[in-house]
Write a structure and sequence with these properties.
alpha/beta; 270 residues
Amino acid sequence: MMAMAKGPRQLSGKRIIVTGGSSGVGRAVAADLTRRGARVLVTARRDERLRALVERGDAEAFLAGDICDPPTRQQIVATAAEHFGGIDGVVAAAGGGAIGRFCDLAPATFARILDLDFLAQAELVRECLPWLATGHDPVIVLVGSILGLHPLPLHGEYCAAKAALRSLAGTLRTELADDGIGVLLVNLGPTESEFWEGLLAGQKPPWSRGHRMPADRAARSITRAMERRRRDVTPGWQAVGYAIAARLAPWLIDAAASRHLRRDQPDPRR
């Protein structure tokens, strides 16, 4: 049994894997961790982007591959452990989405979203656990979404995956406490990323517009939360407002979503 460390977590020297490191919050977190002195291995599918990140000095090492592929996950962990001599943290920031009514989307799309946004992240964490258990003040960061707090229509698969990620964070936080492994859940709101460009199906809903938090600002919120040993963090006033509504008045979210859905997505059966 390892006692949970006290005081701020020192990120300098920490050996950390960051998934989804080729763009958006994943890339920004990798860069901010590196600025704070961490040793970072980034992973994503786009080799050239990861290589550029390392060449800029925003990460120490990279490994390209599909995190949904089990041998790739094993290789990521093995490469990080060999390169760094151990693993002190993992930031699960990879993800994707699809837009459409649940009844209209293909089962294969549902399976891919659940794999990418939940199962692959969870299994990577599982692969890391033996190393984290012997790491220095280790931490797991699960990058979720405010839609894991309360769902919206046309995002069914994504909402289900992020709600599952939230539940996993709660489970791990309790199970791993005696091992001294911290668990941070990130509830992201609208954030600069390539999410809409990478949709597996559908297109951006008309109501999904407005200000998006810069990825580097979200990343700073995440790394500060890691330092402060937070259990969860919700970066940005829009995300905080949604989280409050989800807890105190979820019916307001449902009413607004239903109004937009009727106006912008008429039921084809009518």
